[in-house]
Design brief:
Largest sheet: 4 strands, antiparallel
Radius of gyration: 27 Å
CATH superfamily of the largest domain: Ribosomal protein S6/Translation elongation factor EF1B
Shape: elongated
Number of strands: 4
Structural class: alpha+beta
CATH architecture of the largest domain: 2-Layer Sandwich
CATH topology of the largest domain: Alpha-Beta Plaits
Helix content: 40-55%
Length: 142
């Protein structure tokens, strides 16, 4: 079972409870969170309307149910647009692993820097622009 996030743009005249029933009918117990976002103005008209409702649904289900969902959404005229994202395959889910690797990298760099300073082979600090050099010169004059 994979985690999915589904964003839908809904006809502003439709009741959100109908959409919630529609998703519960397809995913049954797989719906973890159903959130009505906003009624907002659209960048361009969809079905001759300049406003729409946004709905965000978090689902834990199999891929076959997602296929069935997209098939039924194409038939349903009240759901204008939908975007389905598999959260398990996204890199953002692995951000904790990446953060851990980054922390290890920073620790290695700090250890290497300390070793260079201890041996006297530390690289001198280089200034990137004229303003930084001017600030350094002013500090040295004081």
């Amino acid at each position: 079972m994979a985690n999915y996030e589904i964003m839908m743009i809904i006809d502003p005249k439709k009741d959100i409870k109908e959409i919630e029933q529609f998703t519960n009918e397809i995913f049954k117990d797989g719906v973890k969170k159903f959130t009505k976002m906003d009624r907002t103005n659209l960048a361009y008209p969809i079905n001759k309307s300049n406003t729409a409702q946004y709905v965000l649904v978090n689902v834990e289900t199999e891929g076959d149910f997602i296929k069935e969902f997209t098939r039924k959404v194409n038939i349903n005229k009240s759901i204008w647009r939908q975007l389905v994202i598999n959260l398990d395959s996204e890199r953002a889910v692995d951000s904790l692993k990446n953060m851990k690797k980054f922390e290890e990298f920073k620790a290695r760099r700090a250890a290497e820097r300390a070793e260079r300073e201890k041996n006297g082979t530390a690289r001198p600090f280089r200034y990137n622009n004229r303003d930084q050099r001017d600030q350094r010169d002013q500090r040295e004059k004081r």
